[in-house]
Automatic annotation (TrEMBL), chains A, B:
Keywords: Calcium, Hydrolase, Magnesium, Metal-binding, Phenylalanine catabolism, Plasmid, Tyrosine catabolism
One of the record's GO molecular function terms: metal ion binding
CC cofactor: Mg(2+); Ca(2+)
Name this polypeptide is given: fumarylacetoacetase
Amino acid sequence: MALIRSWVESANAPEGPFPLNNLPCGVFSRPDEEPRCGMAIGDFVLDLAGLEAEGLIALSGGPLLDVPFWNEVMAAGPQVWADLRAQVTRLLAEGGGRMAAPYLVPRAEVELHLPFLVSEYTDFYAGRHHATNVGTMFRGADNALPPNWLHIPIGYNGRASSVVVSGTEVRRPWGQLKGPEDAAPRFAPSARFDIELELGAVVGTPSQGPVTVAEADAMIFGYVLLNDWSARDIQAWEYQPLGPFQAKATATTISPWVVMSAALEPFRVAGPPRDVPLLPYLQEPGPMLYDIALEVALRPEGGAETVISRTNAAELYYSAAQQLAHHSSCGCPMTTGDLLGSGTISGPTKDSRGSLLELSWGGKEPFAIAGGSRSFIEDNDTLTLRGMARGDGYSLGFGDCTGKVIPALADPYKRT
Amino acid sequence: MALIRSWVESANAPEGPFPLNNLPCGVFSRPDEEPRCGMAIGDFVLDLAGLEAEGLIALSGGPLLDVPFWNEVMAAGPQVWADLRAQVTRLLAEGGGRMAAPYLVPRAEVELHLPFLVSEYTDFYAGRHHATNVGTMFRGADNALPPNWLHIPIGYNGRASSVVVSGTEVRRPWGQLKGPEDAAPRFAPSARFDIELELGAVVGTPSQGPVTVAEADAMIFGYVLLNDWSARDIQAWEYQPLGPFQAKATATTISPWVVMSAALEPFRVAGPPRDVPLLPYLQEPGPMLYDIALEVALRPEGGAETVISRTNAAELYYSAAQQLAHHSSCGCPMTTGDLLGSGTISGPTKDSRGSLLELSWGGKEPFAIAGGSRSFIEDNDTLTLRGMARGDGYSLGFGDCTGKVIPALADPYKRT
């Protein structure tokens, strides 16, 4: 597939991130305006609520767009999603009329909000290199992968209330900590605060009862970048036997733009060969991973940014469709706005690891950044995830998924 | 505290469950009516939406009651909760006028719905006898309690979409299973389907940032009975290292009535002595458990009911207030409608165990019921939880928390 040219000139840049092929979904406002649905196009946000009010966009079951979340469109299902993309493509394609021109708002002027209401958040563990790295650190190389890992897309329920949009500052958490050498636990700020580089799948159409992988794939509205902030010292002490809990509930940052599944269609790639065959309910009818280049950048306060990791979403062992199929397998109802984190996406090399835990090998091997080094996140560091799918003469992005870590409160129970 | 007598005679029965002291919160409808908020009183439901529309109840920020959920009242905070109780008590107290009489709907005529919108669901593990029993079965008596158990109210995030109201049938789930002797996993109906007898705390007022135990206690709107249906064979294979997931997501049944914290105030009891001191952020300023007698009954299709367990909510090691304080400790935002399961409440004796896993000791010691025996739940068994707080001449109940387990689908992927 090639670039779809637009009369919005900034949308035709081959390096993207927002050509007419993309049309990612966000919620925006200018000062003193109500947040509403828009799509990124070149240097602009297209005011979809405005176009719908003017009758230039009309969706089945509408109006759906003059609200500060995409959930109504997401719940409307794949035909409405396709229809919306077709209508916006007609409005913005090169050679067409410019009726939509008054609805282009410079991106520099807008604030971006959480693009959808997160109903529930589930975090998976589908990156084989990540699971192997973490397992090797904790259990040794011979027992790195848990026995179920090659059979189940392992996951746990996270905390939807912790999900914030890119740009939100993240306060270093306090928590209950106990190092292996400590006689007793203590309550203190986390000293091993970390990121996890993930792709998040956004469920559009709901389900009751188990769904197949193909059905699950069709339920997914789109994808975001997702940073699953993780307090490794809280995690180490709390996570047995019931899994991560407070270590993962301080914040989860997502990109401001949801890239629709339809836009990622040309970037589908097959999963890896399977060491052991998957059970039929997890087998994929076609390629369901995506070739999306990913990177993590770290910038200290007042310093220069260093890209500390470069990897690809195709490194995953399980697709979001497989995860969603497994999630529903016991009859768990899935709902519009469910967010499924992929798990940390590490590549096979040192410089493609998707967490500081892995990059510094548990803090034992600090890694270099411009002007210093890091084992874990230091106060006032800004961490940014980026993703880019590169096609034939065009590229799709998600917008930066960024957060600055501000110092822990001196006393978290002091009321001011 | 003694019985508060009402002119609704059926509310004055000393065995309860719905005297004027209780006033639990539910959502009800008669055929062809819209569900709305009501309170149980004797043999009736008091139509609060009707009283509010008529001006006989007026709440700050109202109207709040003509909706099919209690979340608006819950979000309004403790002063509104107290004011509502005071207004209803005045309307129904013996010696007062009977303006409310037209708003009494016989309970036998109504359908009860989920009493509130569950925003997120967290399940804890705060029953020491339960944790010890399960730990002994899985790891031996010497390592029964995990090392963190006496320091942390261990919990994991569950699935809010799985929460259903009492009376909803529960379909036996399929899942990925692998017994210790099996060479490979298979996808099959759960053969070890179970209950967990729990108390659920319902968060009313939201929070940002860590809250103290006292603050947490004041945020809790009330309590429900909660059955955390559990597929033990799915759980055993999936739960390492990230905790229970599909084993717990088929359904979670709650009682139709939320008993407000204020009604349970006279039943407060202190927690147990602590083997090791709790960290300050978990220490309780006063008694925060409740003396509530609990029981589990099992009834086979067409057979007689057997009470298979009798225990008490005072057997918990951690209170809901401690759990909520811990839940918020990393800065996790807590929201109106959060549901916190206590964890299985087992007593010290064989006949006070709160799950079939414990009652049958992992299936090795089937227990007797009228006309047969059980290790785990069989198809068409009905499981019922009951709770009763017994005061001076009166008793408070939650209504039955019941569910019938219907057979697994022959093919969960067949679309009819």
